[in-house]
Design a protein that fits this description.
Layout (H helix, E strand, L loop, with lengths): L6 E3 L2 E3 L8 H11 L6 E2 H9 L7 H18 L4 H4 E4 L2 E4 L8 H13 L4 H14 L12 H27 L3 H14 L5 H11 L3 H19 L5 H16 L3 H9 L9 E2 L2 H18 L3 E10 L7 H18 L5 E6 L2 E7 L3 H16 L7 E9 H6 L4 E5 L6 E5 L2
Helix pairs in contact: 1-3, 2-3, 5-6, 6-7, 7-8, 8-9, 9-10, 9-11, 10-11, 14-15
């Protein structure tokens, strides 16, 4: 039940129902999770399966579901008429039909660990439990209350156990095992802090380049998904890696490799927002010396029908805008995503009049990807020189397809 739902019977994988979220499948899952108990009251099963639904006769619906499940079990060779026992209003899986459930095994190991006093033996048991956790508990069932509650419970217990195991493995200098365990955890929960254990284990093994790669990937993910800058713990590890890399042999070759652009991508250069800020500061300093003209453009995606976009649709349209910006701008231009519907563009060596042409090109490229009747892009612009001088805090705005200039008070 971790990472999905799969059944094996007599060493063969079986499929009971093509609909993996059907009531019969849910009933089987609930019964299998209760194999070590005295059973589950039919009233509790009705609440779990039909609690939020308007069902006229929940008892009859449950009986029909039990009937369907028995037929499905019999179709794959499991004695369905004997597998589910109903007695005194309590429903249970027949304990004579032995079952093995990863989620139950996980809980059993955690409970067993509590009874062991020897730390090494206790950690070995927790390590076995953590290796069982191959993914979220029944991810396809998270719309069901009973499954969502258990999912949260398993996640919390997994996180606490893995944290304890990693601390112990670090003391034991078993760094490769920490890397394997934390890599699995980071794949399941990419927005948690498991990357810290990945980095720490790699640093301990002097694999600094791999550690730096994970650092860059993780910080980029956190910014793109949550708009968050690297945490203090992440920055601390970045400094450690920087020092170790600078002290290692072949540092010049390493620097050359890291400075080299990995692939020659046409169009504007994309960078994260913190990197964009750094580039802005550098460009501002360069302008003091060479007087170069540089403009900042804010591109804002709008729904022309004044309706809130669905989250997935908003992401898709935002990607179309990003593609339009990248393809029409020059390789010497820079851009970043400020948030889901806004992009910032830096245009070095350009005049105010040519900014109009830039917005027109973006509009045309964007219009080839989405219907203009549904979405539009608003443009705000200010020269870096004006922003640096903090003139009258105004920006200029391109508003329609003809890109007529209008003064607009900066917010």
């Amino acid at each position: 039940m971790f990472g999905g739902f799969a059944l094996q019977y007599e060493e063969k994988e079986i499929v009971l129902d093509r609909n993996i979220t059907s009531k019969a499948t849910q009933l089987l899952q609930i019964l299998l999770l209760g194999t070590k108990t005295e059973g589950i009251a039919k009233s509790s099963l009705m609440d779990a399966l039909y609690g939020r639904e308007e069902v006229e006769n929940k008892n009859a619906s449950l009986n029909n579901t039990i009937f369907r499940l028995r037929k499905q079990l019999m179709s794959v060779g499991i004695p369905g008429d004997k597998s589910i026992i109903i007695k005194g209003g309590v429903c249970r899986w027949n304990p004579e039909i032995l079952t093995e459930v990863d989620a139950l095994k996980f809980k059993e190991l955690l409970e067993q660990a509590k009874t062991v006093e020897d730390r090494a033996k206790r950690m070995d048991i927790l390590l076995e439990a953590c290796r069982l956790y191959s993914g979220e508990f029944l991810p396809n069932m998270l719309g069901e209350d009973w499954a969502a509650v258990k999912n949260v419970e398993y996640q919390k217990r997994y996180a606490a156990s893995l944290e304890a195991v990693c601390r112990w493995l670090m003391e034991e200098k078993r760094y490769e095992e920490i890397l394997q365990l934390s890599t699995t955890a980071a794949e399941i929960y990419p927005l948690e802090n498991w990357a810290l254990w990945q980095i720490d284990s790699l640093i301990a093994m002097s694999r600094y380049r791999e550690a730096m790669s994970i650092y860059e990937k993780t910080t980029r993910l956190f910014f793109d998904e949550l708009g968050l800058s690297p945490s203090q713990e992440m920055l601390k590890r970045s400094r450690i890696m920087g020092e170790r890399i600078s002290q290692s042999a072949g540092v010049i070759d390493d620097i050359k490799q890291r400075l080299r652009e990995r692939e020659r991508i046409p169009g504007a250069y994309y960078c994260t927002f913190p990197s964009f800020v750094d580039i802005y500061h550098i460009i501002s300093r360069m302008m003091e010396r060479n007087g170069m003209s540089v403009y900042i453009m804010l591109c804002t995606l709008r729904n022309t029908k004044d309706q809130e976009m669905e989250e997935q649709r908003e992401k898709d349209v935002s990607i179309y805008l990003q593609e339009s910006i990248m393809t029409v701008l020059r390789r010497g231009d820079f851009y970043t995503r400020y948030n889901q519907t806004q992009y910032l563009v830096m245009l070095p060596g350009i005049s105010q009049e040519n900014c109009v042409k830039v917005s027109s090109r973006i509009d045309n490229a964007f219009g080839r990807r989405v219907r203009k009747s549904d979405y539009r892009v608003d443009y705000y612009i200010a020269s870096v020189a004006e922003m640096g001088q903090d003139m009258d805090n105004q920006v200029r705005r391109f508003q329609n397809s003809e890109n007529m200039w209008q003064d607009a008070e900066s917010v």
